[in-house]
Design brief:
The structure is a single chain. This protein is α+β, with helices and mostly antiparallel strands. It has a single domain, classed as Electron Transport, Fmn-binding Protein, Chain A (Pnp Oxidase, Chain A, Roll).
């Protein structure tokens, strides 16, 4: 099915449901053009500063963190249920040591507004440019959230302005 540019809210409920149930795939790219994919299960989709935003969280030890820091761009891809194996693989193997695209035969399409490619078999893509980032300050965490950071490695929150959204029309 052909994807067309749509308003970022077009498949927002499906995006949030997929993130909760199976995770999403965040793609990034190195300065020399090597793509990477990471599974994400935390994020927000909405409007901040009168802009469409996808907020994602990435730990500094992740290869994806390095790539986003270098390029300031990422793409959020919404996988189908049939892609669960790919989501799991991308969430357990580092792109610094593996070519996930070659190993899992993941097809990509070039970005239109960003240099980061999208995953061709995902029905929805959000092309994002980082407009703000924030490192979590552990002294401001409340309650049981601190339990998620027993290793002491706190996420960086990337506020990605959604420059374009592509989806299969249903």
């Amino acid at each position: 099915m052909v994807k067309t540019e749509v308003d970022f809210t077009y498949r927002s409920k499906a995006t949030l449901t997929a993130m909760k149930n199976r995770g999403l795939l965040l793609t990034s790219v190195s300065q020399d053009g090597k793509p990477n994919a990471m599974a994400i299960g935390w994020g927000l989709l909405g409007t901040i500063w009168r802009k469409p935003i996808f907020l994602t969280l990435v730990r500094p030890a992740r290869f994806t963190h390095k790539l986003i820091e270098e390029t300031g761009e990422f793409v959020v891809n919404v996988p189908t249920a049939k892609m669960a194996d790919i989501v799991n693989y991308c969430g357990t193997v580092s792109g610094s040591a593996h070519d996930k695209f070659r190993e899992k035969k993941i097809r990509i399409v070039p970005g239109t507004k960003v240099k980061v490619p999208s995953i061709a078999d995902c029905p929805v893509h959000y092309e994002c440019k980082v407009i703000y980032k924030l490192k979590i300050d552990p002294s401001t965490l409340f309650g049981d959230i601190k339990e998620l950071y027993k290793d002491g490695e706190y996420h960086t929150l990337y506020f990605g302005e959604i420059l374009a959204t592509y989806a299969e029309k249903t």
